Amino acid sequence: MMRLTLHHVGCLVENIPAALAAYPEACFAAGASEPVLVRSQKVRVCFLPSGNGTFIEFVEPEKDNVSLIRMLRRGVTYYHAGYFCRDLEECVRDFLAAGARELTRFASEAFEGRQCVFIVTPQRQMIELIQAG
Fold first, then answer.
1. Residue 58: which of 70, 74, 44 has the closest Cα?
2. Residue 29 has pLDDT above 70, yes or no
3. What are the phi and psi torsion angles at 113 (to 5°)?
4. Which uninterrupted H or E stretch holds 73?
């Protein structure tokens, strides 16, 4: 039984409305969510449904989010996959045992205050683990 469910692919953008304009409404059945400020991460995010319960998460860094702005300037756009976890702590332990390292933990306004953890795999892929509701 899978303990993780893909929720979204995170995409860095300079401006959420401009990014959404590049995704034709005719290709996506439902519109994007309203942007939400995730204060602890210094980003605004919104979700565009992409089918089968998955989303594209548009991540717009606040002006003082130096690390994400630096990534954007280097041309990094798609930068993480977000997964719902039935047991967040168990998933974190499993990733750490497999050689990943934990970057940050936070409660996200985008997920009703649920706990989230960013980790980086030994191959340098970033994954967001989100406590399932």
1. 44
2. no
3. 80, 5
4. helix 66-73
